[in-house]
Amino acid sequence: MLTKMDERKPLKQGLKKRRQPDEGGGGGEMKRKRGGETGQKPQGDGGKKRLDALSVGYFRRVGDRLTEGFDDDEEKEMFVTNVLTEVKGKAALVASDQTGSITLQRLLQLSSPEQVGEVLAELGGESGADFKTISCDRCGGHVVESAVRQMSRFSESSPEETNTREEEEGTFEALEAQVLCLSGVVRDNSAEFLGHVHGSHVVRTLLHVLAGCIGPPRTDARAVSVIDAAASAVFQTMLTVCHRKRPKLCKQLLKRIMEYLSSRSAAPGVSPLLVFLKDQASSRLIDTVIQLAHKSLLCGLYKKHLKGQLVDLALHPIANFPVQRLTAASAKYKLFQKLFDELLQGLEAILAAGHMGVIVQLAEGCAESEERQEELIQCLLHAFHCAEPGSRHVRCLPLFMSLLTYEVYYHSDAAEGSAQTEVPLSSICYHGSRLVQALAKFKDRSLLLSSLRTLTPADLLTLATDPAGSHVLQALITSSSDKGRGKILKRLEGQYVKMACSRLGSRVLEAVWNSSSVSQRQNIAQELVGCESQLRSDQFARHVWAKFALSHFAHRKAHWQEIQTGESKKRKLFSEILE
């Protein structure tokens, strides 16, 4: 199977000696592929020898056969023996190749002590000096580790296997001798081994084996990439692409990834997923898995691993992000109510930790599911200290937007009771804005609208021109009824020109205009048209002037009103069709 290497060094000046027909012992097989592809030749990294393409394909097929399994032990032993025969004489070359290394590791787990000993003997050479080179190789080190780990498998035989072990005592001693030889090489070259990224892992495995406390055999090395930082990003991309183009394959991948992460070792009684959720790379992969998961996977994830742990995870600086994804993904299922009950118990602690993304997603979930909305509102009122006395309810909007409690925002003590001092609107933050926008989607928005109507015109202007606050004002006005919108617009009178001349305010004004009735538009236009020169010369307001057709309003008011009425009817008809 494996063709012979051409051991000769290349001639100087790039000239190559003509190959004779009988050179290399490979004859016709070496010529089977164009350019000698089947011969092992130096490649890339410093002339390091690699397996040829034909051999790589062979070991890939061996790996596939191992995955399929065997009908009986006799078939398995025959297969392992045949493959190791092919490996004989080329063990170092096979171990140094990625595909060969992975396959050889799996073979060693099925091999007899004599066979493992023979592989180690070849890897180490006559004196064991080659152990250093192969142990410090990126792929070879894994093979050495796997071979050494087999000591624990043979030394922990069950009573039924004792007789067999006694018959193989001599072959076991051969394996033991190779492990001791490796130990001697490590001892003599300890500095090099301990300081090497791959060699140090061999030393750790060797220490475990010699101490008699080695764990179970190492799993397939390819799966470890799931928790690697760089590979995690690749898996995230792969899942996203498969979700769009190959949904069935995506479903299988999601299941396998969760099975792998759930199977890793952890403390007794603790789900391994709790560890991965707190890891930077793994948590991002789990984010993607949750985002794309189907109902049964989400329910199983909560029931088997996360039930009773959500508050602790929500308080963690990394794990709180997967909790947000889980809350968002479960909003359309009954699972959401279980998450809601659990997270609501720790709402104030989550707020104190500053993990507002969890609270925002909880509000978004209530809006989407149309469940538990009143409970969340009441809990937020208590958390921001504006539930009692009832007169504080109308002060909730500034508190929610700033994420400050009543006492902090209004600079008052609880002992002052309901006494309040007017404080200009300030400290509007991104997550506060997101929270109020989510609450604005609730069935009952009366509390927010009542609070909005208590703001002064100056505060409303501040809100309209703030990067975060402008979204809040737009959401509350556009989602109101005509009557409710009219009350808010009444308080905005006198501020329309300033809004039109603001980058953010002009966008809010346009959104308000699009949702307003004809009479409300007429009031806005009446105020704006009196400042024509200012508006037409401003970089933002000139667009408002054009979109609102204010020149038309100023000179042909009846015609303008007729056009606006027609647009209003079309908009109403279109919205009814969508509903």
Automatic annotation (TrEMBL):
Protein name as annotated: PUM-HD domain-containing protein
UniProtKB keywords: Nucleus, Repeat
Superkingdom to which the source organism belongs: Eukaryota
Record SUPFAM superfamilies: ARM repeat
Segments of skewed composition (Basic and acidic residues): 1-10
A single Gene Ontology CC term: preribosome, small subunit precursor
Gene (name only): nop9
Annotated PANTHER family: NUCLEOLAR PROTEIN 9 (PTHR13102:SF0)
Pfam families named in the record: PUF_NOP9 (PF22493)
Stretches for region Disordered: 1-52
MF terms in GO: RNA binding
Pumilio repeats: 86-122, 454-490, 491-526
Domain PUM-HD per the UniProt entry, residue ranges: 431-579
A biological-process GO annotation: endonucleolytic cleavage in ITS1 to separate SSU-rRNA from 5.8S rRNA and LSU-rRNA from tricistronic rRNA transcript (SSU-rRNA, 5.8S rRNA, LSU-rRNA)
Organism, scientific name: Takifugu rubripes
